[in-house]
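Deliverable D4.2, example record:
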Amino acid sequence: MHYKLKSCFLVFFILLVTSSFAQREGYNWIFGKLAYISFNTGKPKNEKLFQYSAIISAGTATISTKNGRLLFYTDGVAVFDSSQNIFINKPIRGTFGNYQTAIFIPHPHPDSSNLYFVFANSGPFDEINKFGLSYSVIDTKLRSGKGDIINSRYNINLIYPVLTHLGAVKHANRKGYWIVTHKNRTDTIYAYLVDKNGINKTPVMSKTGIIRSYNNYYNNYQPPLKLSPDGTKIATFRYPDISFVADFNASTGKVTNIIKLPFYGWGSEFSPKSRYLYFLSQKNDKKFLFQLDLKKMEQKEIVKSLVLIDSNFYYAANETLQLAPDGKIYIPEKKHSYLHVIHAPDSAGTKCRLQKNYFYLGDSVYSMGALPDMVQSFFQKKTFEYRRSCTRDTVFFAPSNTF
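Output generated by the structure prediction step:
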């Protein structure tokens, strides 16, 4: 896709085409205790969440229309519509409290814009039901347009047992999605393709050489798995040499170039341009926020790039981080009514501008240590390239990152 204009309209056109590519599926966040914020005005704004539909949970997921209208949200078990009414008698198979318990994905087929997948992750200790990773399909035309799960496509199992890892990113062709998890007691990452034909139940499997095995309830909750907004990287933390970052191929679903990291960590997040990786860590009573530079995907270079951003968080550091539509990274703290923010996450070191207690969630409203799990590609930063032969000649524009 190309655009052309005369130079006198240059500034106006840049604003116009940038907004025309905006997708607002990730503009509404519901999480914690009665927390509901919207980014439809460009900045986070508190919205009303009714008490009867309160979510009091760490892990949640939300999805909105391309125009930013709230559609559905879930705590991994109960699913609610835009009117904050529960889908009666149709719980999904996530685990209440898991940080990555569920995620919504729009159906990629152009004639199925009324359909949405909701994936649920029961975690590694569902020994009775053996649900693991499952999915259901929601049709927005049901219940007089409020939506409901299709009976024949409800709680369909994909794989068991899995870690509490659940990430999603768009396919490189921008017409499909990858849903990604990690099988428990193995070194294998599973990537399922969601395209116009639905879900390909034959996963792309990638061995990492790092076995993750969780065998008791108290070790159930693992740090989230994160995919970069441009679909080129994947990362997750825990203990040194189990923490890693790697290349992800959004065309094939393969994970390669596994780089072990000698750091203990928990929540992590990529910057909008996917160059920097932030993670929370803790030692004794000290809590830390670090930044890594991934410009060179080599262990020596990445480890050398480690920068301490902050060492004075009040609560424990086992919280998540989440990139937002405004290009900032938000950080919750459990039972805390404020969100911290990284204002300029694509900037090196402390130039990223961490600000504590940036956004107030409201009286008696707080997070439970996590923010909604969403398709990371919703928050990719889009740029444009242009060419011209002289100052007053025609200027040609095209998206420089078409992922």
